[in-house]
């Protein structure tokens, strides 16, 4: 006897649940600092934070100032924890990690 579960379709169920949070093919460059990975480009910060809420601002407690106010601060970067950077680099393949030197 073959068991097939009955699954109700959720509202807005047209979206594929297997779609990754970030589009494939785009590359983001991060710098490994020893305890985290820092992403410095404004467009890269926006791409990573808005498509999955990865990381936090280096000068703020949560979202980077670029996201909350729309004003770009050149000295603020997006700080990714090691788990987040490993997920973005090895599973999604969109983060290219460089050494601090």
Automatic annotation (TrEMBL):
Gene Ontology molecular function, alphabetical: tRNA-intron lyase activity
Superkingdom, taxonomy of origin: Eukaryota
Domain tRNA intron endonuclease N-terminal: from-to ranges: 29-95
UniProt-listed InterPro entries: tRNA_intron_Endonuc_N
Name of the protein described by the UniProt record: tRNA intron endonuclease N-terminal domain-containing protein
GO terms (BP aspect): tRNA splicing, via endonucleolytic cleavage and ligation
Region (Disordered): 1-21
Species: Bactrocera dorsalis (Oriental fruit fly)
């Amino acid at each position: 006897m073959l068991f097939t579960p009955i699954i109700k379709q959720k509202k807005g169920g047209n979206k594929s649940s297997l779609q990754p949070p970030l589009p494939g093919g785009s590359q983001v460059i991060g710098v490994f600092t020893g305890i985290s990975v820092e992403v410095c480009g404004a467009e890269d910060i926006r791409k990573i934070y808005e498509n999955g809420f990865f990381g936090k601002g280096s000068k703020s407690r949560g979202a980077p100032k670029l996201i909350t106010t729309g004003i770009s601060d050149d000295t603020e970067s997006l700080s990714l924890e090691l788990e987040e950077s490993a997920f973005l680099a090895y599973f999604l393949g969109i983060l290219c990690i460089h050494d601090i030197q």
